[in-house]
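Notes from the 1:1 (GR / supervisor)

We went over the backlog. Supervisor wanted to see one worked example end to end before approving the batch request, so GR pasted a single chain during the call. The sequence is below; no edits were made to it. Supervisor asked that the structure be written out right there so they could see what the output format looks like.
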Amino acid sequence: MTQRDLFYKWLFYSLAGLLWVAVQQLLLNHMNFWDGVHPFVLPMVPIMAAILEKRQESAFFAIGAGLFCDLLMPGVIPCFYTLAFLSAALLSGLIAGRMIMPGFLCAFVCSVLALVLTDLLQIVFLSPSANFAAADA
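Structure output shown during the call:
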């Protein structure tokens, strides 16, 4: 693949990611289902690159997408989305390379794992800062 083709490939991935960020910020953040719960699709952006590309390239894309989301939205800790997206992309690259052949099933499984991993990391980082009194229960 030539340098020009590589440039256009990663430009396409970046523009697709920007499209999903715009959809998240303009549409999905304003949908409330249960007391302020709204859909969150941004962990799936670096996952698609991780399934289709090499691990090193997709890791750099996940870091870039995470930094962009960290600058755009507040996280639980500084660089939360960078850590979450990078770990999800590395896990997805491992799954796509060793366990499940890349395709629809692999994309579905890796997307679900990315959402679960992001939520688990959010729970882990929120747990020490939560103060629950016995009277609240």
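Supervisor's comment: Helices lie at 3-26, 44-52, 55-72, 80-99, 104-126.
Batch request approved.
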